[in-house]
């Protein structure tokens, strides 16, 4: 029984978790009943009325405002995108970087964050990589800053071993040094409380199919609106301050929207935005802090079970340095993934083993079942803790 909320009641909203032991929310979350109901409403309206477009667009703005409150920003700082990768590419190409400038990143962080900046090599921008140590904060990154460093880009939570970086201290470092700061919160949002103001980030990007519970195809970008020098690399009517009433493009009407809408191209993923409204209802009803604390308790239980089997955990063990919900077990994926699948347990292969990632619906019984499946098969000495 969770100390934080009624997990059994939450589980009833996720039919898939009654059929399999789902420990793969770091890949994507199962569909929840309220989220499906929101998508069904959109489809029914399209089927029966050919689409009440003005109603749908009003809901987009309502959801934008709710998402902004959820992250601690204003609605005019939120843009909707396709996914995290698009958000990172928008951010990378909006920075006024020139030949000789350098961007600092973390070695082994998510590749689609890195590729967005590595692609700037065509402009003569260099990407430097700091090592991914167990603790990454302002003190660990400061020695890697150079005279030409103009930006730092990184995840808040790593996808492959659950490192939780101290983005607040790094944001303060960027403010001190006058650097742009870009943060990928894909593996944090919906599970880890996020205060965008405290991060002091220039851009924050994410998708929505993990902790935000929405099917794939919707992303978000938070823009610090004080950074008015940052402009989109591409332009559409939706990006403009004033869309021509006659929809005829003219070279003298290119003023950008004062809001984050300058980074949008229009034609939103309307079903997914409807879904996001419903998922925010679910998350806020429980409280992100409670979801985080529940997942941390599950992680403590998992670590204790692995220790009892003398099986090593990859990545940080301390609560303050680990993500609440992502844990990698040092079991070779090639040897173990099929075994878990045969026993009805959904996990992911990762660089150094098997990734277990919790959602709001997971229970201590799920962890016990995982440990029991490991115990019944047995482990080789190479998998044991050092």
UniProtKB/TrEMBL annotation:
Occurrences of domain Aminotransferase class V (ranges): 56-370
Superkingdom of this protein's organism: Bacteria
Signal peptide range: none
Pfam families documented for this protein: Aminotran_5
Keywords assigned: Aminotransferase, Pyridoxal phosphate, Transferase
Single Gene Ontology MF annotation: transaminase activity
Protein name, as recorded: Aminotransferase class V-fold PLP-dependent enzyme
Biological source species: Bradyrhizobium frederickii
């Amino acid at each position: 029984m969770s100390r934080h909320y009624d997990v059994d009641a939450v589980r009833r909203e996720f039919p898939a978790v009654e059929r399999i032991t789902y420990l793969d929310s770091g890949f994507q979350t199962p569909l929840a009943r309220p989220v499906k109901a929101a998508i069904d409403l959109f489809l029914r309206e399209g089927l029966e009325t050919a689409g009440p477009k003005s109603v749908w667009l009003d809901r987009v703005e309502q959801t934008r405002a709710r998402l902004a409150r959820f992250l601690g920003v204003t609605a005019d700082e939120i843009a909707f995108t396709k996914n995290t990768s698009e958000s990172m590419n928008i951010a990378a190409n909006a920075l006024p970087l020139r030949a000789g400038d350098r961007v600092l990143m973390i070695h082994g962080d998510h590749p689609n964050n890195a590729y967005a900046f590595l692609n700037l090599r065509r402009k003569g921008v260099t990407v430097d990589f700091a090592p991914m140590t167990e603790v990454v904060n302002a003190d660990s990154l400061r020695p890697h800053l150079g005279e030409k460093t103009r930006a730092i880009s990184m995840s808040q939570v790593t996808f492959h071993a659950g490192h939780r970086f101290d983005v607040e201290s790094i944001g303060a470092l960027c403010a001190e040094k006058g650097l742009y700061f870009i943060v990928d919160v894909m593996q944090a949002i919906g599970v880890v409380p996020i205060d965008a103001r405290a991060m002091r980030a220039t851009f924050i990007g994410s998708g929505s199919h993990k902790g935000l519970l929405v099917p794939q195809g919707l992303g978000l970008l938070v823009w610090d609106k004080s950074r008015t020098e940052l402009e989109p690399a591409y332009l559409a009517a939706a990006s403009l301050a004033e869309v021509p009433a006659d929809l005829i493009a003219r070279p003298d009407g290119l003023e950008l929207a004062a809001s984050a809408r300058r980074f949008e191209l229009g034609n939103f993923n309307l079903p997914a935005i409807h879904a996001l409204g419903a998922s925010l209802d679910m998350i806020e009803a429980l409280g992100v802090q409670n979801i985080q604390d529940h997942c941390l308790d599950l992680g403590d239980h998992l670590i204790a079970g692995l220790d009892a089997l003398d099986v090593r955990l990859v990545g940080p063990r301390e609560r303050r340095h680990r993500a609440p919900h992502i844990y990698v077990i040092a079991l070779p994926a090639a040897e173990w993934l099929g075994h878990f699948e045969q026993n009805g347990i959904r996990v992911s292969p990762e660089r150094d083993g098997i990734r277990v990632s919790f959602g709001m619906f997971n229970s201590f019984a799920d962890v016990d079942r995982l440990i029991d499946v490991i115990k019944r098969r047995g482990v080789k000495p190479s998998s044991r803790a050092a």
